[in-house]
Amino acid sequence: MNKQATGIGFIAIFLWSSLALFTSQIGSVPPMLTIAITFSMASVFLTIVYFVRGELVQSWKDTPLKSMLLSGASYFFYHFFYFYALQHSPTLLAGILAYSWPLLIIMCLSSRKLSTFNWSHFIGGIIALMGTGLMIHSSTQMSTILDTTSNHNTSTSPTILGYFSAFIASLIWGSYSLANRRHSSVPSSCVLWNCIVAALFSVSFHLVLEPHVYNFSQDTWIAILGLGFGPIGVAFLCWDIGTKRGDLSLLGVLSYTAPALSILWTALFGEQTIVNEQIIAGAIVVIGVLIAFYRPTKRQLRDDHS
User: Fold this and answer.
1) Nearest of 260, 176, 249 to residue 6 by alpha carbon
2) Torsion over CA of 93, 96, 97 and 98, rounded to 10 degrees?
3) Which of 30, 95, 113, 120 has minimal Cβ neighbours within 10 Å of its Cβ?
4) 244 Cβ neighbours under 8 A, 6+ residues apart
């Protein structure tokens, strides 16, 4: 496995941890309009990059149409369900539920490659999942307190749909990440065409299903710009490199750091307050990640097989 590619993949995780913060700032902007704008921005940015590098035409030739359409659809539907979840349920809790896809990656890899499966990744993933569960518990308690002290009541139905959307988003992204491994021969510049396909999906759905209102505040546009150039722009390129040439199982475990980082961002720049239970949960996640980094020596491996 390429350690550099794994490190690049972690950059994507780091950027994605800011998704909940940025999304919470866009308020009532329709989700498909948000996706359309952000993917369009990412498409323009990547087009300029590969045009300057002289790789634009070759990238188009090297990217299979089937791969382009499936990947673009995955980009779109993952974000559609993710944004819907964040706008119809507590922001932090929905963000954490949407991160159940790392365990899917670890479990699927273990069932496919039992002979080379790294047990430290599995154990580390389970421990990190326990930490994530503790975060969910603490976040649920805080959401209950906020709902009790506020003057408005949230309907149960939209909240349940929000949680369900977060789970669907997780399923889509886990499946895409595993499938992307099969297309390691496709250059990572394919992300440009994936973003264009996702943008076209988004514009079409927005025009048909959502109100055509574009008068948003300056802060909202700043948040959308942040999404387009960070978690949706550079992050996808980094993840493509990581899933194709890096240690996918380790990236799955490292992905559990995103909820902890998400709490940090919302505490620093949002309205979230960190409680002791979340600090403990973050420590558990860190322990799980450290265990995942453990590599048994050749002698230990021989002893295990003797």
Assistant:
1) 249
2) 120
3) 113
4) 5, 180, 181, 183, 184, 186, 188
pLDDT, one tens digit per residue, over 72-120 is 999 999 988 887 887 777 766 676 677 778 877 877 776 665 434 567 7
- Amino acid, res. 183: H
3-class DSSP state of 1: coil
CA torsion 104-261-284-134 (nearest 10°) is -80
DSSP assignment of 31-83 equals HHHHHHHHHHHHHHHHHHHHHHTT-HHHHHHHS-HHHHHHHHHHHHHHHHHHH
Please answer whether residues 193 and 68 qualify as being in contact, where contact means their C-beta atoms are separated by less than 8 angstroms. yes
Assess contact for 96 and 262: CB atoms under 8 A. yes
pLDDT band at 288 (very low <50, low <70, confident <90, very high): confident
DSSP 8-class letter at 114: G
pLDDT in tens, 218-271: 888 888 888 888 888 889 999 999 999 998 878 888 887 877 787 778 777 766
> Largest Cα–Cα distance in the chain?
69
In whole angstroms, what is the distance from residue 263 CA to residue 256 CA? 12
Write the pLDDT tens digit of every residue in 121-163. 677 777 777 776 776 666 555 544 444 434 444 444 457 888 8
Amino acid at 106: I
For residue 17, give Cα distances in angstroms to 112, 192, 231, 263.
Answer: 29, 22, 8, 9
Global pTM exceeds 0.90 = no
Tokens of 58: 């070759």
Amino acid at 181: R
